[in-house]
Amino acid sequence: MYRNFLSVRSADALRTFLVLLALAAATAGCRSVQHAREVQDPASPLPGERSVSLAEILPDGRTALTVDEAVRLAISNSPAVFQARASLVVAESQLQITRATYLPQLSGAAGYSRAKSYSHPAKDAADSYNAGLSLGLDLLSFGRNIAALAQARAQYDAATAQLASAINTAAYNARHDFFGLVLAQDLLVVAVENVRDFSSHLEQVRVMAELGTRIRYDITTAEVDLGNARLGLLSASNTLLTARVALGRTLGLAEEFACPIVAPPNTLLLPTEDRQALYARARRGNPDLAALQCQVDAASAAVDYAVADLRPDLSLGASLAWSGATFPLARKWSLGPSLDWTLFDSGHKVGVIDAAAANLQASRSRMADREQRLFQDLITALIQLQTARAQSAVAEVVVRAARETLDLVTSRYRLGLATSLELTDAELAVAQARSQQAQARHDELAAQALILLNTGDVPPTARTSL
Question: Residue 228's domain spans which residues?
């Protein structure tokens, strides 16, 4: 009777253990599983995973967009930024996995089987039960776990810097395409006014020809000038459409950006224009350089890991198991250290060390190359900025002079003292001067945006995305 009582109690204990094991398996990582299922939902993609609409990014019905708002929207909806943020989550998960090597690992197993033998003489079917727990802890890895953790931390830092780089690039692309749209709008205004001026000129020539002060050749020349102006207007309109589409893509749209914009000031918030000060600021703030430094640290940790892998691994293991055909089940336990050491592997681990060392040197070389290109890019941007500002100053004078010349030639033309060719040249000179003025203004803004890209200066609203 006592044996039957123990059998019942042992069976109840085994069933309880199986239930607890099943519950533990079902609830382990339930939050992660729930999140993964939500990600699989076709209705779950966020901006950056999908294209957004203009009505979605401008829900308040505003009538114009500023450059700072464009930067914010580009960062929020950029697929590259979203991918970099996902890579950061992967790096964080890998860091968590690496940290788990410092903690004990507990696992359980349980099973039941019923078997029957058809040998001679035949045997009745027999039940078999088994259950067990095992505990493992890595006691000493001679620096391997420390190196793996250092490498995972460096990779996490690199992913953080790469996210900052993606945000920095998205901000630059938004500024670049925004300024490109400003230039396209300015050139369209010039083209429209050019068509208007040549249309007015054609009407004047026709009236003067009726009065006998101009010949048929002057009318033909005016018609040719108007035709060329209309071709210029068509080209400017196409350029404007291209610029709108480019800005729309930068903002995460798969449609034309059909919204007015606010022209930015000629001067952005530059930190300084001193060469050495800019380079020092860029070395501190450029996210590409920071990511490369983290990759150097990760490569150095990989060397430590490869060297530590030559040494043995000491771990502690414990297990508790029940098994048998009837209850109470037989129980056994074990506890003790384990030493694992590969004494000879035909040079595999030595080759890993050599490869890790070479990768470390290559990582340092990539960082040196980026430092050199960073200094070159800053100097080039500063030169472009100085040149654009000088061109802007000259263009303002040229526009004023061209207008004065046009007024003078127009007056002389009405008096019959100037030819149609002289008037055409004066009108084209005004259009060209205004186009050059718009281009110089664009180049000035574009050079400042390039400087901000290299120094890693992003708007305060973008820093919260880190």
Answer: 59-103+141-312+346-463
Does 166 share its domain with 306?
yes
End-to-end CA separation in angstroms for the chain = 69
CA–CA dist 187, 431 (Å, integer): 9
- Look at the pTM and tell me if it is higher than 0.85: no
The CA distance from 16 to 216, in Å, is 108
For 163, phi then psi, to 5°, come to: -65, -45
Percent of the chain with pLDDT over 90: 31
- Residues 34 and 64 occupy one common structural domain: no
Residues 79 and 225 in one domain: yes
C-alpha span between 271 and 222 (Å, rounded): 51
**pLDDT value at residue 6:** 41
Query: How many separate domains does the chain show?
Result: 2
Return d(Cα 341, Cα 312) in angstroms, integer: 4
Give SS3 for 134: strand
Q: 444: which residues sit within 8 A by CB, 6+ positions away?
A: 266, 385, 388, 389, 392
| Residue entry with tokens 């054609």 | 202
Give DSSP secondary structure letters for 262-288. Answer: PPPPS----S---HHHHHHHHHHH-HH
Which CATH number belongs to the domain containing residue 451 in this structure? 1.20.1600.10
Summarize the confidence of residues 439-453 as an average pLDDT.
91
pLDDT, position 17: 57
At residue 114, the pLDDT reads 81
* Rg from Cα positions in the chain: 38
Do residues 22 and 110 lie in contact, with contact meaning Cβ atoms separated by under 8 Å?
A: no
Total Cβ atoms within 10 A of residue 297: 19
Edge-to-edge strand ranges of the sheet holding 330-340:
105-115, 126-140, 313-324, 330-340
Distance separating alpha carbons of residues 385 and 54, to the nearest angstrom = 33
The token pair that represents 10 in the structure block: 């042992």
Residue 142 backbone class (left: φ over 0; alpha: ψ -120 to 50; beta: rest):
left
Q: Which helix (H) or strand (E) holds 360?
A: helix 348-414
Handedness of CA 279, 284, 286, 292 (dihedral sign): positive
The three-state secondary structure class of 416 is coil
The dihedral sign for the CA sequence 69, 74, 76, 77: positive
Model pLDDT for residues 338-393, shown as the tens digit of each residue: 777 777 777 888 888 999 999 999 999 999 999 999 999 999 999 998 899 899 88
Q: Please state, for a pLDDT cut of 70, what percent of the chain lies above it.
A: 87
Residues β-bridged to residue 127: 114
Q: What are the pLDDT digits (tens) for 61-103?
A: 566 888 988 999 999 999 999 999 999 999 998 898 888 887 7
The predicted structure's pLDDT at residue 4: 46
Selection from 3-12, 23-32, 322-331 with the highest mean pLDDT: 322-331
Instruction: Specify the pLDDT at position 249.
Output: 92
